[in-house]
Amino acid sequence: MSCSRIFVFFVYHLTLAFLLQKAFGAYNCFNSEIFPANSPDEANLNGLISTLSTQTPQTGFGQASVGQSPNRVHGLALCAAYMSSSNCQTCVEQAGNEIRNNCPYNKGAIAWTNRNGDCLLKYSNVEFFGQVDNQNKVFYQNPNTAVNPAAFTLQTNGLLLQLSDQGSVRPNRSASGELQVYGLAQCTGDLSSSACKQCLDELIGGTLPTCCNGKEGGRVFSGSCTLQYETFRFI
Ligand SMILES: *[C@@H]1O[C@H](CO)[C@@H](O)[C@H](O)[C@H]1NC(C)=O
């Protein structure tokens, strides 16, 4: 069965999440076409994952293309701003393993790994750098409802929109802040400022209201950007 249309959504309970850190993660084999085993594509994918595992921990973002057309593969990886470089490296390696295990010969796949989607790794045989990918998406909801949901949501959206403005124009495409809640907004480093802002604003306006309206925490990850907020300091 093709998993290309399957989006994986998780609802987590915070206490459980801490106990079951390793059990959470999501992936999507978004290109159902497969390449042959032992093909140059497979070798290129292995080379790409290894390059991204080395490169990404240095700044939190990595991007590479490996091999020659028509077997060339393109990929990127992003780690959450709160991760140490060694945790980032472990996370990207795990994401690579998840992709190899779950989408072994797919021509395009993405994995979000660790407790809260701490890192993502995406690759494709089609070059995709600079394009906003909000098709691939996963979210986690903190199931606790805020005491005053409407006011809370207004305040949270205000903070996240501010982080979208700030982060999108920074070279590292990342911003965190605090306004009753703690928030973090990040884009993959291949996006222009305007694409980054578009990506984040779509998640704020389109996805958060669906997944996390009035909830004390929400974390949304797409193929191009990530948004997280909680009432506790997770950053
Ligand atoms: C991104 O850059 C800003 C300054 O432009 C810095 O304050 C912040 O810590 C950086 N974030 C990451 C994740 O490197």
From TrEMBL:
Any Pfam family: Stress-antifung
Entry-linked InterPro entries: CRR_secretory_protein, GNK2, GNK2_sf
Keyword terms: Repeat, Secreted, Signal
Subcellular location: Secreted
Cellular compartments per GO CC: extracellular region
Signal peptide: 1-25
Family statement: Belongs to the cysteine-rich repeat secretory protein family.
Protein name: Gnk2-homologous domain-containing protein
Annotated organism of origin: Hibiscus trionum
Taxonomic classification: Eukaryota, Viridiplantae, Streptophyta, Embryophyta, Tracheophyta
